[in-house]
Design goal:
Layout lengths: L1 H57 L7 H28 L2 E3 L6 E3 L15 E9 L6 E9 L4 H42 L1
Antiparallel strand pairs: 1-2, 3-4
Helix pairs in contact: 1-2, 2-3
Amino acid sequence: MEFIDKLKEVGCETYKYTAEKTNRIAKETKLKMKMNQKKSDIDDIYEEIGKATYQEHIREEKTGIKEQIEEFCTKIDVLSSEIEDIRTEILNLKDKKKCSVCAKEMDIEDKFCPSCGKEQPTVKIENAEVVTEENRETEKIKTPEFVEDTDEQEDFAKEKNEKTEEIEVSKENKVNEKNENESNETNEDNINE
């Protein structure tokens, strides 16, 4: 009887481990698909920039595409930021992190980067409850919590937040400006009629 109980216990543990591993692989695959879609969107925007630039080149009267290109670049910045967030999420699923200096992938417990040798901030792994957007289920995953922050990390975080805010403000301004221009053109058309 004792043998059968041990066999059941080992079977249950193996099942749990396999289920957890499969779940992580599935999540990683979904994230990679999402990241590839965003990369494809960026490629499409590059193509649109090229077309707009060439159309401006062949026109006799130049309309000035600077604003249009800035709008495209803003979209690329937002998509790039989202891709970086997805990469970080994938690293967390694999219990990895990026070097704060050379950005090479490394184990989350490593104190020094195996590539450049730079000392890394101490990371403490804790179980945290996370609600995913896709299924709104609470899941337990390991998330890194930085015990000590380096000046570089703080500067990077501030810079990233500032850049994101600038992009959002820029997008709002462009939308407002576009709406204002369209409104003015409509008013001018009405006056001319």
